[in-house]
Design goal:
Number of helices: 7
Strand order of the largest sheet: 1-7-4-9-3-2
Shape: globular
Order of helices and strands: HEHEHHEEEEEEEHHH
Distance between the termini: 46 Å
Radius of gyration: 18 Å
Largest sheet: 6 strands, antiparallel
Strand content: 15-25%
Structural class: alpha+beta
């Protein structure tokens, strides 16, 4: 069992998704842009914590408070718009899910020392089984810190997407491999592959990732963008962004028979 070698080639990346259920694109965020985005996320996380706005994530273990989930980061800083609608993200979304597609959620997870492990799961748990032989969603993880085995890198069961079902309760201990990647890398994984946050064994490292969850257009988005989106994002969005946010529609979500935007 192994994870694929990082690649910037879209064709190879799609082959990795088909074979492993995931692929890694290195060096998408670099230099000042990476630092600024990381700082923006940690600022948002500190703001939530200081104002007691934190919320637990349903797949975290109840006894463990090592994970901090930051919701709706799309509205927290314009830098996150660049991630949600980045060319790398759109190329993979269109190739894997087709078009139109929806941005269901853009949230972040910060794993602190001494815990953070998550329940093994797949992302399309809302679907009845057996699943059809193609993914209904694509998760795009932006590594804002180095992801290492020691600091709790996301762990995968490569190839598990081919089972077309979620892991059972007695399969929580199946072999998984840490997805180790340098800060600035993007990890893309399809909605059927089994994965979980790893256990952060370091004494002093936090590990932050931003997760863009994209789906086929027949599913309701996790985040209700009509209520939570910062207004100027819609005001200045291009057609692709309006489509991903469901303000521009084809076939579904129409107003008086036409796209609302």
């Amino acid at each position: 069992m192994s994870i694929p070698t990082p690649t910037t080639d879209l064709t190879q990346g799609l082959a990795n998704l088909a074979n492993y259920g995931l692929t890694i694109v290195p060096g998408v965020l670099t230099g000042d842009r990476l630092k600024a985005t990381r700082d923006a996320l940690y600022r948002a996380a500190e703001s939530d914590r200081s104002r007691t706005r934190e919320q637990k994530f349903g797949l975290d273990y109840g006894h463990d408070d090592s994970n901090q989930r930051v919701w709706n980061v799309l509205s927290r800083d314009p830098l996150f718009e660049d991630m949600a609608f980045h060319a790398v993200a759109l190329d993979y979304v269109k190739a894997v899910l087709g078009w139109p597609a929806l941005l269901s959620n853009l949230s972040a997870n910060i794993t602190g020392p001494g815990g953070g492990e998550m329940v093994l799961h797949a992302d399309q748990l809302y679907m009845p089984e057996p699943w059809c032989d193609e993914p209904q969603g694509l998760n795009i993880a932006w590594c804002l810190d180095d992801f290492t085995e020691a600091n709790g890198a996301t762990r995968f069961a490569p190839g598990s997407h081919k089972l077309n079902r979620a892991p059972r309760d007695d399969e929580q201990d199946v072999e998984t491999i840490p997805m180790e990647a340098e800060a600035g890398s993007v990890v893309l994984f399809e909605s059927r592959v089994w994965h979980k946050t790893g256990f952060n064994r370091t004494p002093d490292q936090t590990r932050a990732g931003v997760f863009g969850w994209y789906t086929k257009p027949i599913y309701r988005t996790q985040e209700n963008w009509f209520l939570s989106l910062r207004p100027e994002i819609r005001q200045f969005a291009n057609d692709d962004a309006l489509t991903l946010l469901a303000f521009k529609s084809e076939g579904l979500g129409l107003v008086n028979g036409a796209s609302p935007a």
